[in-house]
Amino acid sequence: MKILVTGGTGYIGSHTVVELQTKGHEVIIVDNLSNSSAEIADKIALITGVKPRLEIFDLTDGNRTSDFFERNNDIAGVIHFAAFKAVGESVQKPLLYYQNNLTSLINILQGMNDNGIQNIVFSSSCTVYGQPDELPVSESAPIKIAESPYGNTKQISEEIIKDTINTSDLHAIALRYFNPIGAHETALIGELPIGVPNNLVPFITQTAIGIRDYLSVFGDTYPTPDGTAIRDYIHVVDLAKAHVIAVDRMLNDKMKTDFEVFNLGTGFGYSVLEVINSFEKVTGLKLNYKIVDRREGDITQVWADPEYSNKELGWKAEKGIDEMNLSAWKWEMAYQESKK
Ligand code: NAD
Ligand code: WQD
Known about the structure:
Blueprint: E1 2-6, H1 11-22, E2 26-30, H2 39-48, E3 53-55, H3 62-71, E4 77-80, H4 87-92, H5 94-114, E5 119-125, H6 149-166, E6 171-177, E7 179-181, H7 200-208, E8 215-218, E9 230-231, E10 233-235, H8 236-251, E11 259-264, E12 270-271, H9 272-283, E13 289-292, H10 307-313, H11 321-338
The structure holds nicotinamide-adenine-dinucleotide and UDP-4-deoxy-4-formamido-beta-L-arabinopyranose.
């Protein structure tokens, strides 16, 4: 089946393209390369033996997007990753985030509607739950007021999709990711943050390889066993595999309702210090870190209830925290080596 992957040269998108191709799907990537590079298509080809078609344009451009869908009206399904994702930047530049994340979604839904394309998988986030009242957090937990414009774009996007479904033949699956980390086992693709990383694991690997002097651990006075904040880290390849299952579920008419939501997490929470300990164990390195103040906007703890995804999708995250850290480290080393 022909699948459009928007943002397919990005971190999660590239891993998903690999899994789609491995399962025999034909992939077209649309990406404006605002946070990735065209070389990723070559890396994907090295892994799978097939270079995905890459069209480079901005999905906020209504005319380009509409023209794309007219030319490709045989697409069976869309996986929509393309978005800006930096929480802090979204607070500084809210209009940029609303413009990019919402306009691109609207243009895609319009293009799909106009050309009879009915299936979309949408990248949502556990950020929609804020600090949940109950843990683990299930899909039926209340959506909290968004803590950032970025988080708000995910909430509004889910609403836009639901409203569109009410007036069209659209089917959608929103996948709410917890904290994706790690890289492909070949170390050919992985996470490529621009500038100073915001996220924990890229900061750890960049510190270990000597790009950063030390990791700041944001707070050790949280009401958790070791005082540091807890998250549900999930290997990006496990996440990617869930997208293939979701898209196949739609194409095979297995959906229970026209709009479905699934948590993609492992169901296990790890504290910042536990992640560091795991990293040190699997790499044999000593990480330089300092405890500093809490980061504004951070929640204390969240981990997924993945039971519904496990049951309905027949999917389960398989890779543990050690494997996640080791793959992230191998990717960092391979990437720095490739730049020499
Ligand atoms: P990423 O930045 O690596 O990939 C996004 C890709 O989309 C990039 O290649 C970028 O160039 C492209 N893009 C952005 N705006 C575009 C536009 N207007 N037109 C065309 N291409 C555009 O990010 P990622 O980590 O792979 O995240 C993918 C999706 O998953 C995003 O929607 C993100 O919000 C969501 N998500 C990510 C995380 C995470 O921690 N990485 C967690 C939850 C949800
Ligand atoms: C993880 C933990 C930090 C960096 C973000 C988004 C969320 C989702 C995933 C997209 C926290 C601590 C971090 C550092 C640290 N993205 N930390 N030192 O904040 O859970 O989630 O990415 O949808 O919406 O908010 O991920 O990797 O930034 O932080 O101590 O240098 O590591 O305080 O406890 P987060 P993260």
